[in-house]
Every structure is written in structure tokens, then in C-alpha cells.
Queue: 4 jobs
Job 1
Amino acid sequence: MGIRIIDSDETYRLITDGDGRYAVVEARCGHVYSLDCHHAHQAPDGEEGMREVVGEHGWNDYPAARDCFRKAVTGERYYKEHLW
């Protein structure tokens, strides 16, 4: 199955590969970025780019990925409100 965006907020996307695996990526300026510090990577925005930046080991179950997504979005809003 292909990569599908389940949710997006700020610059973050919660994605699935359709096989029960989920991940969070960041999308900016036509590129996608991994949030995994062990797999720091960027690729052109699109289905293959999202698959590439997640890699084979960046996938999680739904609850873990949803929690990561929530924390990323909440942190982004916090810094926007307090730094600017």
C-alpha cells in the first residue's frame, strides 16, 4: 500500500504505510524531514520522500505515533507563543 497522511497540523504529518505502521514527519519548503534523531534525513515531499525519511526502523504503532504527533504540534505552538 502507499503512504497516506492521516492527520496534519503546523508542519507535522501523521502518516501510515497501510500495513499497521505509523510515523510522524515534518514538511517544509517542498521537503520532508525525519523526526528520528537516529535517522536524520530529508527528501523531496511526496509519497516516496516520506517513505525514505522514515526508513525501515522509524515506524511505530498508532498510539506511539499519535503521541509523537501531539507532542510535536504542542511544542511548536508553545515555542511560537513564547518566543515571538
Note: The chain has a mean pLDDT of 88.
Job 2
Amino acid sequence: MAFWDFLRPISDQAVAIDLVTRAIVLLLSLAMLAIALLAYRKSKSGKALFVSIAFALFAIKWVLKVVDLFVSPGEFFSRPAENAMELLILGSLFVAIFRK
């Protein structure tokens, strides 16, 4: 018995509700993208633009993850691709935070 075996039931439950959680995160990311785009349209600031780009990338990532459940027998949106997308998201947020 491994140290982390007590987490297996939680992990199994997460796998069981994977479609639901992916759909919820996708809807929330699209809502955040819409809010960010409205904020950018109102202010036209560079910070709002980079926040909008970050949320657009986040929404694209989750669209791919949801589509992956229905289209691919495996995972076509691999972990390295997901990591690269998250790096772009974090970079965009970093620029938005430190931009004057």
C-alpha cells in the first residue's frame, strides 16, 4: 500500500465526473473571456488587452479539452501542448500585471 492510496477514491470520483467538470470550466472560461472583452472595449487599455488574450487562450484550451472527449480516442491535446498553452496564459497575465 502506497502513501497516496487514500486519494484513489477521490481520483476515481474526479474521473467519473470529468465531462461535467470540463463543461463547467469551459462555460466559466467563456464567461470570463466575455467580461474581459467588455472591459477592454470600454477602457482600450493595454492591460485589459493582455488579460483578454489570457482568457481567450484559456477558453481555447478548454474548448480543445472538451472536444478531446468526443473526437479523439486518446488525448490529442497532450500535456506538453497544454503546458505550452499555460505558459502563454501566464506570460500574458504577467505582462498585464507589470505593464505601465
Note: The chain has a mean pLDDT of 90.
Job 3
Amino acid sequence: MLYTQTVKIPADRRIVIDLPNEIPAGEVTLTFSSAPADRKKAEARDLELINLHAESLNREMAEMLSFM
């Protein structure tokens, strides 16, 4: 599952992340990057990430749907 949230980093470099209930407890990988200057670049980056993880995202979705 890919969850994207844009936040402002304060001077003390401390942030708190509240995740939706749909994200299961357990190990995750956090990736931080600077926000792109324009929206088209952000959309292109998001699409690239989705394509990169498409197989695992599809597998995860199929697993979720099997519980319904």
C-alpha cells in the first residue's frame, strides 16, 4: 500500500504521522523526499512509484478483497 502525505518540517525536525486504519500494524518502510516544486512533477513521481510497486499493490488488493 502506498500512502502519501505532504507535511511541513518544522525547525526542530520533529513530525508525528497519524496513519489511517487501513494500514496494518507491522513493519513498514518510510521514504522521505523533498516536495516537488510543481504538481505535474509530483504526479509523475507518484505514477512512477505506483508502476514500480504495481505487482505487490495488485497482490495486496486481491488479498484484501478475498476477506470481503
Note: Residues 39-52 form the longest helix (14 residues).
Job 4
Amino acid sequence: MDRTARYGVATVVAAVVTGGVALAHPSPPLLAGILVTYGVGTAVALRYPPLIWGDPDREWDKRAVGTLSGVLTFGSFSMAGGVAGDPHYGAGIFALGLGGFGAAVGVWLADTSDLGG
């Protein structure tokens, strides 16, 4: 996917997620964090399609994928429940976005480093 399309899709994803959270939790600092995290994270993830669609030439370590999924789920629910007395879904969405961003940047770093092999 070319850069312009990638950034366009990332902007739409970030706007939709941020807009959805804004309906329930109109907190400017939270919404700014969600907008940037989902925008940049989506752009990086779209740069590396195997992160989204899988790579047929490569076997993914299922333990790593399971660990990432489990910790993201646990962390998102923990953050959503721990911010206030009532579930704060905006905080949970932000936590999920931070985890996805970390995974996408990890793939980017592994791809561009000499450590990968």
C-alpha cells in the first residue's frame, strides 16, 4: 500500500475510534492520546501487512501471539476498570491501542535491525 493511502486509512481509523470513545468519554487528553496512538499504530501496521494478514512463508510463534493477546485483553480490562468506579471504556480502548502500537513498532524494529537474523 502506498504511503498516501496508508496515511489516509490510518486517519480514518483513528477518527472513527476517537469519535466512538468521545460519545461516552469526552476527555480531551484521553481523546488526544487515542487519536495519535491509533493513527500512528495503524499506519505502522499497514506498512507491514504480515502483522495484519499473516505471512504464509513464516510460522508465527503461537506462544508469543497468545501472550500478546492475553496481556492486551487483561491490561485493557484492568485499565478500564481501574480508572474510575464504573468501567471506563475509553481507558480500555486506549490501553488496547497502546498494546497494538507496541506490537506494530516491535515488528518494524525487528524488520529494520540486524538482530533479526
Note: Residues 89-112 form the longest helix (24 residues).
